[in-house]
Design brief:
2 copies of one chain form a homodimer.
Chain A lengths: L5 H8 L3 H8 L7 H14 L5 H8 L4 E6 L4 H18 L2 E6 L7 H11 L4 E4 L7 H9 L4 E4 L9 E3 L3 H14 L5 E5 L5 H16 L8 E4 L4 H11 L8 E4 L2 H13 L9 E6 L12 E4 L2 H16 L13 E3 L10
Parallel strand pairs in A: 1-2, 1-3, 3-4, 4-5, 6-7, 6-8, 8-9, 9-10
Antiparallel strand pairs in A: 10-11
Chain A binds a DNA duplex (30 and 30 nucleotides) through helix 2 and helix 4.
Amino acid sequence: MRKANIADVALRAGVSTKSVSRVLNDEPNVRPQMRAKIEEAIEALGYKPDLAARSLSSGRSFIIGLLFDNPSPNYTMKVLQGTLDACHQAGYQLVIENVDTASPTIGQAMEAMLQHRRMDGMVVTPPATDSPAVLDALERANLPYVRIAPNKFPGRSMTVSADDQAAVSDVVRHLWNLGHRRFGFVGGPASHGASMWRHDGFFAALAERGVEPGEIQEAEGDFTFTSGIGAGRQLLRAEPRLTAIFAANDDMAAGIFTAAAQLGIKIPDMLSVVGFDDSWIAKSVWPELTTMHQPIAEMAHIAVRTLIASRNGKAVKEPAPQNCHLIVRGSAGPVGQ
Amino acid sequence: MRKANIADVALRAGVSTKSVSRVLNDEPNVRPQMRAKIEEAIEALGYKPDLAARSLSSGRSFIIGLLFDNPSPNYTMKVLQGTLDACHQAGYQLVIENVDTASPTIGQAMEAMLQHRRMDGMVVTPPATDSPAVLDALERANLPYVRIAPNKFPGRSMTVSADDQAAVSDVVRHLWNLGHRRFGFVGGPASHGASMWRHDGFFAALAERGVEPGEIQEAEGDFTFTSGIGAGRQLLRAEPRLTAIFAANDDMAAGIFTAAAQLGIKIPDMLSVVGFDDSWIAKSVWPELTTMHQPIAEMAHIAVRTLIASRNGKAVKEPAPQNCHLIVRGSAGPVGQ
DNA sequence: GCCCCGATAGACAGCGCTGTCAATTTCGGG
DNA sequence: CCCGAAATTGACAGCGCTGTCTATCGGGGC
């Protein structure tokens, strides 16, 4: 018993193949009665349209690309999960493309990729979101794309992002309410957009509460665990000792744990630490890390839906920034004596 | 200027489209001179065959599926990297499929997936490798598949695995040479194949050196960081104190770090810890974790190549077990006084 | 009751490639 | 130099679906 095709369905429903096609594609001008007949036949035969044929015939490919550049596995996996799920729901396939944004030949790599694979659209994740070469190539290929949480070129494309400012402000409120008044901040390289926003948001929220920038101890890392250790050591030298440190990502926050342990400083009794990302490492330290969860999978989901919707010619309005929320675990507690 | 198709190439080379097709598919019986002409034309026009048309016409899909079931992001990312790379090289696309092996409806989920997507083959990762429902569905669909490091049903399919036994034996040699004589082992659930092998390999290698099983302290975790803390606390109660602990994966090894820190036991001065997997967490503890690296990406690469080769009708011989190697970092040192 | 027009359904021709099979060329041996 | 077999090339018909265009239907306005 071979797989049913559109002709089988048409035959069983006593209609033309084109009508079946109309139902499949949700086209207008199909009488309800006919639609019902056809849907019954599809159901009965377990018919699934053949993607290759559909693609060949219509020019659409039913493939969404996911472009990523090797950031943390946690992040990528979450994006993957969101895009995958959205693609499945919409009957699309997901094709993963890994590029090296920093490579000088990135332009050619993109060309090759775009020529070879026919895609209906592409989801772009940081840091590829901020590479002019990548964006240029995409635009030259006339391929619709959505960027997730880009740091540069706002307005250049459809975009889905998180509300970083509000998120950081929540972190500050949480720590403030626990009684903390002496703060440290571990940022990433100044060139990194996300790092900058988190920095600015942190300082701004504290300023609102009357804490001057000069009162806040600051160290710079590079988003790695190791750099977090160094930053932690540096900050924990301060006298009187800080009671709370906010790190711009979880890996650096975990590094602070190690620095604290080496200095005999107990978390959370003597020091509260808050991270950002709710990445996988947050549950791999003890006590588990209080951190800001970004709805990465949801953002990815939205990105795919936006892409598919825009393909249908409908003008799609930019989705609003997504809300983050604080995951309270054990690493931040009331200020000690 | 629209994209070139096979007819354009044929025209430019002054041959039939079928001949071009022969060159594209590397079929025999093409004279070198003709092949050269055609390749020149392909080059000149920058021609890339259309996957959808190829697929529709030949029945092959040029798509390889990657089936995974939500294990650690690190592991999955490595598999992803390997399969992705191999697919690219062979001009295939990779489609990710996420399933829940434990779900009671896994059979139906597999059916639905296999019906909808036409694939040329599938790479299956643990724990899906050991689910009869998954394997049954694959076989019913008559889809070639390769399992990576399966724990059950040896011989049921093509398989790529690592040489766990030899790997664990290396761990033992390393610790033994550092002077350790009092060992602890943290395993996973006994039902888990990988865990069992690592357990048996560890005990066997020590037995060779005259250490009786009864002398080895043992605790059971479930591969999570948290369970590692518990296991660590339990093992570190032993008197005289153990000098080396081997954990069946890195997450649990990291848990032991936390337990040790809480008990004031310094690593590596007072305790050596070795993990398994060389996962991402290995570099997110301090000192960094000495651990066994499995060539996961390479294994995935081989799996894809095996799949593609077997598709061509050629009988493919089972690839040999892949070699692991020990990554020496700071967590295991000479036995203290 | 008739005409006109929009709504609905169907016929048909490809999309770009490969499988099949037939036509042609080449080559070795007699 | 001729013949048959093997090697090489090409013609052609789809693969399963959708775009385009045409035919038909149904209903409102006069």
